[in-house]
Design a protein that fits this description.
- The chain is of the alpha+beta class.
- Helices cover 30% and strands 23% of the residues.
Length: 543
């Protein structure tokens, strides 16, 4: 890969990204696709397969990957095809009794027009490898491996970043903007004086990856993406990483010392019988429910785990970080291209913080009932006592865990209320579609996804002809705002009825910026608001 060759760092770039994990790479994809010169600084020389913490890529993340042209590439690399399973099973052990089951989980099943891409189960390293390759192919930036950001200083015009390589040699790079996606121990966060607020769970957990080629032979419950193990010897959560005998697991309430000592016993408890297994890696952790007091300072921004942490239950953490990267990426690109204003960057925190806070709340709720809370007598017993114990446990599982596995309303339904870069609009009386919400998806009559027609700047979606759409297009042109016009008049009349408006302005992140049946009284003011500038401002200087 040309982007990772050893060569001197550039003295100046438009955007420097500290941390080249999935969040930093996603931000670089948003920027690089729009021609922004981007430098990613990442300490790891190779993608780590030892601790694949993320396994769930939700529907919204897959929509972004589709927009980048990477959804099919990622699915081809994923060890588990979506057709293999869409189930989560609760059981006393893999060879024991089933307590309850959820089907069609985590967006792994199509729902008509609701979204163009279903979710995907894939280890984090697969996503990172795909994003590294794709960023290199863009040719608009550079990924520097084996180096880390150690200091950040800024003034009104730029940011000076000190980068240290693996030999301890330092270089200074000047950037117009910096994105800190360097994780929970973020140097960038410390350098701008931001700090986490919130708490931690009291109970430890012991993560591990292990190999057991025989384990799948003992599974009585069929394929599943997750198996929740409910027994006193090994209350745990496990799942396959591939179909070749590699598994991930979390033992609840087990600290580092006990986990290292008893890992093999825990695996036997999960299996419900002795099995041959090799522990490949361990990862003790404690859940954190934290968010920073501020996500930006001047020209420096925080994204992903550097800005917020949540329990992993529901699979929201990485996906929320990628949402941060998309929001920040297109806004920085707009400012650097000259058509976006300062309010666009100010809106990053005001739009993302409510999302992050809700995700933390939902994930914390999901953590209230784990395998340890479901333990009960007689769960593995035959006869009436066992039947009744399993009935009670199954009812409680369905009552307390449904929201964790069927969370599309959270994933797709978040609404940006009161954003300074969303213009209030007037939808139809019967429509629930509002400015600030994700544009409802639809497959067109020819099978194409509506999302595939949207542009990298603003998009004017025309669902019924008139004359006022020309006013909006002229306003965008006069402000130097890139505008794609998508004319759907005469197609999918049910979609026009759903939206309840004839005209919509769509942002690059597929969020509705404005909607109405006629052009607004002051189209220039609406365009100015969406681009983050006071009404009737001149086109900003891109420098």
């Amino acid at each position: 890969m040309s982007s990772v060759q050893e060569k001197p760092l550039p003295p100046r770039v438009q955007v420097l990204v500290a941390g080249g994990g999935p969040v930093g790479l996603s931000a670089a994809m948003e920027l690089g696709r729009r021609g922004v010169d981007c430098l990613i600084v990442e300490p790891r020389r190779t993608v780590s397969r030892a601790r694949p913490r993320c396994k769930t890529l939700n529907v919204r993340t897959m929509e972004h990957l589709r927009r980048w042209g990477l959804a099919d590439r990622l699915r081809a690399r994923a060890p588990l095809h979506t057709s293999w399973s869409q189930d989560v099973v609760f059981c006393t052990s893999l060879s024991g009794r089933e307590l309850s089951r959820f089907t069609g989980v985590l967006g792994l099943v199509p729902e008509g027009d609701r979204f163009p891409e279903i979710g995907q189960q894939a280890p984090q390293y697969v996503l990172e490898e795909v994003l590294r390759e794709a960023f290199d192919e863009l040719g608009t930036g550079r990924l520097v491996l084996g180096s880390r950001v150690v200091a950040v200083r800024q003034n009104d015009d730029s940011v000076s970043v000190t980068v240290e390589d693996g030999s301890g040699n330092s270089s200074v790079v000047t950037a117009d903007y910096v994105i800190g996606s360097d994780g929970p121990r973020s140097v960038v966060r410390e350098q701008i004086g931001s700090r986490y607020l919130g708490g931690e769970a009291l109970r430890p957990n012991f993560g591990m990856v292990f190999e057991s080629t025989e384990l799948s032979d003992h599974v009585r419950h069929g394929p599943a993406v997750q198996y929740w193990i409910v027994n006193p010897s090994a209350p745990a959560l496990v799942g396959p990483l591939d179909r070749n005998g590699t598994w991930w697991g979390i033992a609840f309430g087990v600290d580092r010392e006990a986990g290292e000592r008893e890992a093999r016993r825990i695996i036997d408890g999960v299996a419900g019988r002795p099995v041959r297994a090799t522990v490949l890696s361990t990862d003790p952790w404690t859940a954190r429910m934290q968010i920073v007091d501020r996500m930006s300072h001047g020209r420096v921004f925080l994204a992903g785990d550097a800005a917020h942490l949540n329990p992993p239950f529901g699979g929201h953490g990485l996906n929320t970080g990628i949402g941060d990267a998309v929001d920040l990426g297109w806004k920085l690109a707009a400012v650097l291209a000259g058509w976006g204003g300062s309010a666009l960057l100010d809106s990053y925190e005001s739009e993302r913080r409510p999302v992050q806070e809700r995700v933390i709340r939902e994930a914390t709720d999901n953590m209230r009932v784990l395998s340890t809370e479901l333990l009960a007598d007689n769960l593995d017993e035959a006869g009436p006592a066992g039947d009744e114990a399993r009935r009670v446990a199954g009812a409680r599982i369905q009552e307390t865990k449904t929201a964790e596995f069927h969370s599309l309303d959270l994933v797709l339904g978040l609404h940006i209320a009161g954003s300074p870069v969303v213009a209030p609009g007037a939808g139809g009386q019967e429509s629930a579609v509002r400015a600030g919400a994700r544009l409802p998806h639809v497959f067109l009559d020819d099978g194409r996804s509506l999302y595939d027609l949207l542009g990298d700047g603003l998009t004017l979606l025309v669902l019924g002809h008139g004359t006022s759409e020309k006013t909006i297009a002229e306003a965008a042109h006069s402000r130097g705002v890139p505008l794609t016009v998508v004319d759907l008049d005469g197609t999918r009349h049910d979609y026009a009825d759903l939206v309840g408006a004839r005209l919509l302005l769509i942002r690059p992140d597929q969020v509705i910026g404005w909607l109405g049946d006629e052009a607004p009284e002051d189209s220039l003011a609406v365009i100015d608001r969406l681009r983050g500038l006071p009404p009737h401002s001149a086109v900003p200087d891109p420098s």
